[in-house]
Amino acid sequence: MRWIWIDKFLEFRSGEFAKAIKNLTLAEEHLHDHYPGYPVMPASLIIEGLAQTGGILVGEAKGFAEKVVLAKIPKAEFFGVACAGDQLVYEVTLTDLRSEGAVVDAKAFLDGQLLADVEIVFAHLDQSRSNQIFGPKNFVFTQQLLGVLDLAKAQERARQLSAPGRPDADHDAKVVDSSSSEPGKGLTISSE
Amino acid sequence: MPTQDEIYQKVQSTLVDALGVDEEDVTRDATLFGDLGAESIDLLDIVFRLERNFGIKIPRGELFPENISDPEFTENGKLTAKGLGEIKQRMPFADLSEFEADPQVDKLMNLYTVETLVQYVSGKLEGSK
Description:
By secondary structure, chain A is α+β, with helices and mostly antiparallel strands. Helices cover 26% and strands 33% of the residues of chain A. Chain A contains 4 helices and 8 strands, in the order ββααββββααββ. The relative contact order of chain A is 0.21. Chain B contains 4 helices and 2 strands; from the N terminus they run ααββαα. The interface between A and B is small, with 11 and 12 residues.
């Protein structure tokens, strides 16, 4: 199993906001255990998906130079359940970012209805200490996880290469300007 | 400039949100780590909330000093005279009178009471007038 709990970014505004989706399918083993005959997405894994969306948003804001770890979940409220076949939409807003860490406001929606309202605090690991313990490699932002963001960029490039004015182009995510040299400000994906 | 009581009430609600404690437990003399069960990871959350709730900027290490385990500042688990001087300088908002008699490093965090935060915020608001 791959520890990736989001499938695709629909929107990504550097240092501000990210929107991702998570499709739930019966191919996912855990849904058969949680619960047998009633496949419900565990709340903890919804929080993980929100944290991955938020973690990438926070990490990208500093050019992935920091090791961003989930420090605390001060609030998590759930208003329903999501089952196999459902598509969850995760919307995460960066409310605060400073050198020690960040706070995000994270919401999960199902069919346009608020399903979960979560607040997540991320900490930036102390660089010198984490290098001693884990080495210089950024173990948080593995290529596997960042691949989700790369996919959105690649899809946008493919869209641009195909005939302009394609009728269904409006439904794709958009990546704008990934060439800026300023860290954290090089990426915008929007679904407009 | 809000009154001390108004600042206290806001600090109280900040800690209720950050630590999930009951309002009546957040008395002025309650210690953050002992009485209210705060952990180190809560400090960042508290800093974020105080900034938001009071509209102040809290520079890194100002409210909760960092790097006090520097060998220059500690010896046998106690703060040296230099360390104590450093803490006095970095934490002008805290009441160090009792701590000075037996400055054990692991008791340093006991200096943080709800009142300490009220004094700190009040000093920040005073300074920004």
